[in-house]
Amino acid sequence: MRQKITILILFLVVLLLPSQVSASSDVYIKDYYVDATVESSGDIYVKELFLLTGDYNGYERIINYRNVNAKAFDGTKDSFEGSDIYNGTDIELLSIRNVEVPTNYSFDLIRQEGELFQESQMASSGMRGVYQVETTGNGYRYRIYNPSNGGTNGFMIEYRLKDMAILHSDIAEIGWNLFTDEQADDIEHFLMKIHLPENKNELRAWAHGPLNGNISLDGKNLITVEIDDLRAGTPMDVRFAFDKDQAAYATKTTGEEALPMILEVEEARADQANQERMKARVLYYGTIGISIAWLVGLIFIIIYIYYKYDREYQSTFPGKYFRDFPSDDTPATVGYLFNKKIRPDDLSACIMNLIEKKVLKFEENPEKKNDYILTYIETNGTVELSPSELQIVSWLFDKTPGNTMTLSQMKKDAKKDYEGFYQEYTLWKTCCESEAKAKNFFEKKGKWPTFAAVYAFIGFLIGVLTANFAEILWLPMIVFITAFAAMIYFLTFTRRTKEGNELYAKWKGLRNFLNDFGKFETKDLPQIALWGKYLVYAMTFGCADKLMKTMQIKVQDLGPEYVEMTPYYNYHYMNSMLIFNRTMNRSVNSAVNTAISTRTAAMSSDSSGGGFGGGFSSGGGSFGGGGGGGHF
Question: Are residues 249 and 160 both part of a single domain?
Fold first, then answer.
């Protein structure tokens, strides 16, 4: 009990240490590189390289060049939020390749040539170096066969998006969906570079998607987009406005002065994103703060509860060993003092105690090997029995002829009439618990532990909030685990009364003595007449087998002459009793467990089957193109 508070505090401290959390999926994209160039024709030349890690057959990349559901462009501000003017006209696939992934690499890996894959109409799982192309309503699906058994493969796709640039009266513009909700795998790191080699004057760029993304401008010729932890199913798009000379031969024109309306649309999106970002920061740091405060509070509550309600009283018994019997309580009552519950071992001990009291006797069954006969001896009230002991006698012998019962019959009854056996066992347990509770061994908890359990339950709610808003896994995991452990502790801890703990200390001393029985010289041991009673309580303490083996050695040391001087014991009887004790304990435990398990099985149910860079704006997927993909 003294170590309980230390263990709980160390448990909380260890859990508070930051830890790495593994990816939510065994297959994920470690790095996704995109290198794009805007051409004078209005096309976009694109090279994609994504490094797929895990166990898979290949990857299915969906690339869209249009949105068939986009509304028609009409020159209004709403049209600049998303319309069919942003659709391309086709995709020209140039190549699909495999790129070997070295230990150390960078974005420049996209410059590698790689191994060229071939199109095939008959590809299947397990094949390598081939791909299939399927037309979809908005673009194409490229199924690339490049299996991996837990390593990392580099998939490179080279293509051209046709007619993506729009010429307005004042500027040129492209709105490009990179991903829609069709993206099925998480991307650990996304990096895209968009080149505008002939651009000289105007360059504005915006990105929409996860709020943790960033878009930046490097002069007038390069746009960089970077995102860490791009979750599967998250739409993402970019929009950029630039000199008309960069796409001088583009065929899509509007005649509209577009930049003012684009700025108005994007400023509204940026304002909304900044509000969401501020809200996210408040929720992020707020839930983290609440979680940490809750954990600190829990530590103080555990300390208070332990010292106020859980730490045992100091006993006046100073020694390690106690050779006598501290009280005349039954083995079941002593078992309750130790465990606050009644166990099958206690039933075996109580039966042995009735033999010690000469209420029962045992003898070998001549008709069956390794079996014993129990016989009830009428005492006519000369031996005082407790209600639980009377229940044992009634249970075992009321329905048997001649006041006899074999251990084998007990096991048969437990299996054949499991319901009746279970009811009798439950009635006996109830009697034992009533007798033990009348002794007032344990204190009542009061209101504070109930409050502490409610506080622990609040931790589950805080864990849910932290998981939703903080987007870190290790902290809510700590909160969940500690809340669960604390709730179990608050609901189950007990403390003995001063009198109960004093008695417990002495019985514990007797248990220590029985455990160390073999360490004492035979001449220093108590008289052999007490050994049978020692064996009774050893069954409750769980050291009966060890004690029996020691006693058998000690009996041989004493010799039959000394043993036979006692009025009740003799050498052969002592050995028989030791063997019977072991057999009876196993039989009783087997019978009880059989009845409980059979009853449980019978009752169970059947089974059944501004544009100058910065953070992202919220949203994504407003323009033409897009797509996604996933491993297979």
Answer: yes
